[in-house]
Every structure is written in C-alpha cells, then in structure tokens.
Amino acid sequence: MNKVVSFLFIAFLLISCSEYQKALKSDDVAIKNEAANKMYEAGKYVKAIRLYEQIAPAYKGKPNAERMFYFYSMSLYKSKQYYLAGYQLENFVASYPKSEKREEAAFFAAECFYKLSPEYSLDQTDTNKALDKMQRFIDIYPESQFLPQANVYVKELREKLEKKAFEIAKQYNTISDFKGALKAFENFLADYPGTPFKEQALFYRFDSAYKLAINSVESKKQERLTYAKNTYSNLIKHNAQTEYKDKADKMLAEVEQELQKYTK
C-alpha cells in the first residue's frame, strides 16, 4: 500500500513539473495563469512567481487582472520576499480600491514592513516606515479583523524605537559625555512619557547630572548641583522604592554636601 502511495505521489510530482515546464515555454497567457494558480494553491510560490511575472504585463488594465495580481502579490509575501511583496500589495490596494481583498492586502503590505524592521541596535529607518504604515492601516480600517494584530505590531515597533533611543542616551553616559546624555535623556523622556524604560532613564539622567556637577568648573557648579538634586527628586517622585535608591541616595548626599558650601 505504501509503495502505491509513493508511486502516485511521484507520478503527481512528475506531471506537475511537466505542466509547469510546458507553461513556462508556452506563449498562451491563459495556460501560464492556470499553471501559476495551481502552483500557488500547491504552496510552490517561487514557481508561481515566475509565471505571474511573465503574464503580469499582459494582464494590466484587463478586467481579470485583479485576481492575478492578488495571487502574485501574496506569492511574494508567502515566499518572504517582503520588499517586493510590500510594493506589490500597496500597488494592488491603490489599483483596486473596490476589491474585497483590499483590506487584507493593506494589512499584509503593512506587515511586510514590520517583517523588515531590524534589531533595535541597527538603523531604524525601516522600523519608522513600518510604524507609519501600520498606524495608517489602523486609521483607515478601525473595525478590521486584523486590528488586534496590528495593535500588537505597533506596540512592538514603538518599544523598539524607544529601546533604540534609550540605548543611544545611555551610551552618552557610558562614554562620559554627560552634557550629551542629559540632552538625550530629556528628549527621550519628552518623546516617550509612557515608556517602560522611564525609571532607568530617570536614574541615568540623575547619574549624568551628578557626574557633570561634581566635576564641573566652579562658575557652573552650584547651578549644576541644583539641577542634579532636582533630577533625583524626579526619580523618587516616579518611584520612591526604585531599585536604584541606595546608589542614588549616596550620590544625593554628596550633592547636598557640595551645595552646603554655597550657603555659608
């Protein structure tokens, strides 16, 4: 029985391959389209793409083009060719505004850019683009069945950008560029008020202000010490039991000791 099944499967593959090769060589657009659709249904997306690419120019502007271009776009998506898929899916949405597949295509187009978003440590151009695309989808289709997943993607993309911005600010602190760190943390806290990195950002802002003040020239020291004390207050106001409290309290004690010199 197993031998019979294996034989039939092999025979099916041979016939399928034979049909595919004939379609590739054929000049008949209908034959190519039919073969491409069979490849798509069988999950052989790369083969389907080759055929769709051959017939795409002939289908442009024709009444039956919508279905072909949808399958072509989804073949690119399902074969993980996200740059091309994103472009083709967006083109499909623009070309067929009344299509019943428009919403689905719009979501998958935005998802392509999400898939292209790199690790937070790398350049985030594609992440920003993905966030814009996904937010636009949410704005246009607020009742979409894809809305829950779109919101998950938006949250992930925003957190990635927050992580990138936080790490850049922290790096200034690490290399002892405390002025740069203070500016970066101020911008970060203003841009991401609800960030999960807020407590860390508040501490490193205080740490940067403290180190800048303690090592400051005399003419600017009092002002910088006062600012450092204020950044400590911001940290404690956010979380009185912060994990950084012991270290921050020791730093504050030194700040206050230095400030006393200006009250005598």
From TrEMBL:
InterPro entries: BamD (IPR017689), BamD-like (IPR039565), TPR-like_helical_dom_sf (IPR011990). It comes from the Bacteria. Keywords: Cell outer membrane, Membrane, Signal. The keyword Amino-acid biosynthesis does not apply. The keyword Coiled coil does not apply. Residues 34-221 form the Outer membrane lipoprotein BamD-like domain. It holds the Pfam family YfiO. Gene3D superfamilies: Tetratricopeptide repeat domain. This is Beta-barrel assembly machine subunit BamD. SUPFAM superfamilies: TPR-like (SSF48452).
